[in-house]
Amino acid sequence: MKMNKGSLGLLLALAVALAGCTAPDAATQQTQTDNKPVPVQVDTVKKGSVSTRAGVTGKLAPNKEVTLAPKVGGKIVQLNVKLGQYVKQGQVLFSLEKTDLENAVQQAQAAYDLAVANLKQSNAASDQGLQQAKNGLVQAEQALRDAERDYQRMSDLFKQGAVSPQQLEQAQAALTNAKTAYANAKEALEMAEKQTGVAVTQASVEQARISLQNAREQLANATVTAPISGFVSAVNGQVGEMASPQAPVVTIVDTDPLIVKANLSEEEVTSVKKGDKVKIQISAISKELDGTVSAISPVMDQTLRAYPVEIALAKQDASLKADMVVSIQFAHQQTNSMLVVPLKAVFDENGKRFVYKLEGDTAKKVEVQTGIESSDLVEVKAGLKEGEQIVVRGQTLLKDGAKVNVQPTS
């Protein structure tokens, strides 16, 4: 049907009226929601400390481990232990064939006895020679005095014309010979007193004594005993095999108590010191034990490029076995002078960290610089002051400048 101009105008007016009665758009709804306070929970920025735990893998190990090889080579003729056996310190582990070593001792003993006999003979001869030298010096000294007296008398008689020049010359020659004989006798006595031959013989005796001692030690080394008490963890030989100093035959471990061994990097070792308390987790037996750092090597292991560390366990358990893998938690306690906040208050955006700080009933978005952190706390280096309040729950519903309604913490 045809509509006149009046009817068309009435329809347009009705459409406008209906449009004014429709629901508000999304932007209008968001504005209304933003103005409604968001329920949140808050906490206070305070000074405190952050305990972090550095996890390192290690293993249980004996507190002592000794690998034993003979000091001399030879055939194994007796093997007294087996794997897992408990041995006491001083107990015989294995023995080598001793025939050649016993012969060597006998030869060294004979050489020593001969050297001692030569020394006795040398001493006897030296004593006889010394006495002869003393007697010779006494005789030479007397002859010298007689020659001096004769020469003096001849000299006086020559001056009186009672003797010829030839007689004076003879007396002077006798005096010269007596002086020479006296000097030779004195030198002979000095040589006898030095006993040069005896000194050489004494040196030979000492050399033979040392050779005999070495031979006896070699014979004793053919029997290998346990230097510590513990369990036999390895047996690498059997009766009839040849053993050598380069090949360990038996290994003994002392597992009472067990210790934990680990290796720390340069960065890790700087924050660990002797006496630090640690937590030891052993997943194989689902146990957690307490421990104390007992030793830190001052030198890096160049093969591992790490510093060896030993940890004493507070409690031993029969279920613990050497070489079990453990996880070590080193607790690093910081000073109480840092500002800390709950870690859940901090959130990340575009590579930066923020918190919502309370200003009256308004939440203000604040960038913060953080430091070390644990599972529940984080150090704040900049952006907040002590005593300020921050949102710790409900911040996902906030935006900068939003109104908040602080709820009590449960």
Automatic annotation (TrEMBL):
Residues 65-251 form the Multidrug resistance protein MdtA-like barrel-sandwich hybrid domain. Gene3D superfamilies: 2.40.30.170, 2.40.420.20, 2.40.50.100, Helix hairpin bin. Residues 260-333 form the CusB-like beta-barrel domain. Keywords: Coiled coil, Signal, Transport. Residues 1-19 form the signal peptide. One of its GO terms (molecular function) is efflux transmembrane transporter activity. One of its GO terms (cellular component) is efflux pump complex. Residues 339-406 form the YknX-like C-terminal permuted SH3-like domain. Belongs to the membrane fusion protein (MFP) (TC 8.A.1) family. This is Efflux transporter periplasmic adaptor subunit. It comes from Brevibacillus aydinogluensis. The lineage of its organism: Bacteria, Bacillati, Bacillota, Bacilli, Bacillales.
